[in-house]
Amino acid sequence: MNGYETAAALLPGRLRxxxxxxxxxxxxxxxxxxxxxxxxLLDGRERGFSDTVIxxxxxxxxxxxxxxxxxxxxxxxxLQGYVSCRGIRVGVCGSAVVHNGELTGLRxxxxxxxxxxxxxRGICDGVLAQLRSGGFGSSLIVSAPxxxxxxxLRELIRALSDSGWRIxxxxxxxxxxxxxxxxLNFSLGxxxxxxxxxxxxxxxxxxxxxxxxxxxxxxxxxxxxxVAALSAINGCGVHVLASAxxxxxxxxxxxxxxxxxIDMGIFRYIIEIHGxxxxxxxxxRRLDI
Amino acid sequence: xxxxxxxxxxxAFLWAGAAMCRGKKSRFWALEQLCYSLELAVSELGxxxxxxPELMSLLSxxxxxxxxxxxxxxxxxxxxxGELEFSDMWTQAAKECLSAxxxxxxxxxxxxxxxxxxxxxxxxxxxIKHSLSFLRGQRDAARENYPRDRKLSLGLCAALGALxxxxxx
Lengths: 289, 169
Description:
By secondary structure, chain A is of the alpha/beta class. Helix content of chain A is 29%, strand content 28%.
């Protein structure tokens, strides 16, 4: 099963056929909202794929499939608003349960967004050629949410690893490798080592101590502790491949969390992704000239 | 000929009595194993936060008899998750494998299928404990009553068989 079939398999049977009929158009997400018909995100726009109205039972059923009927095991992920399943991230909305001012859970689920991982070989060949021609250095992939950062990062890791770079992949949410039992097991190249399920700050130290990497790759730099992980790598002679939410370099520099990362001079290249679906454009900007 | 017929009638009633005893014994053993497995489930969920597929697999290996078959059946159905709800699998397996239980006992087991894997860990553990407490009571009563029930079933059937045999002769 590919990523899309795996994602469609999470849906209740009466919705599955409608979703599978869209496979050739490569949807980016499947979205379910209680009281409304399900939609698929295609080229940045939502399109309905069934006339069936979604009920809360449907959402529970998807979550049951996604967690192997073990919602209690995904409570930590749920607190962060998602459930990870075989490399697929299911975003969750509902009512927050707060005890003594602290978020302790989610209930009364109202919406789910099933993000589809695609393995698109060759999409970064042009980017790779530019990175190589300028002398490879640490690179940060940026795009708006849903812009294809993870897919591009996965492809860059695979291509660099296959060309001989020793890469340690810090796969905090198991989206890059989609490894584990029943996972999609995306190829990350022949010289990659994957550490999954660990936060970036701790994982970085583990990899630096134990795996002697030439490159450390990680998805979605979004928290101060992720920036701390980058600082730890900086100065160790290890390159970084990472991704971050920002439309472009200017947007990146305008965000307080990312500015220090750029100021530290960790990254030599910023790879911007523009457009959506099959019309994505990749722009490489060199920072140190 | 009449003698042979009377003998057959008597034997049939004795066999029916033995079958009733076997049924009571199976129910007791099923309750015993279910209670053991649910105690194990409470520990596994409480201490290790085990995912249900792992838990069902462990219970199928660690329980004997009807309870072991029940968990094995749930494990066999689990790959159909998505197509079937967990509660449907649980109910289907319970109906197939725990037929020795009385309706109220079966209902107590089936109710767990609507809670396991769906609610918070503490909700699941309290639901198991609630069913466990009911099933333990039933098991203890079955254990206590078994010698009396066995004598009663065998005695009644033998007496009825003997009576009919005499009538036949």
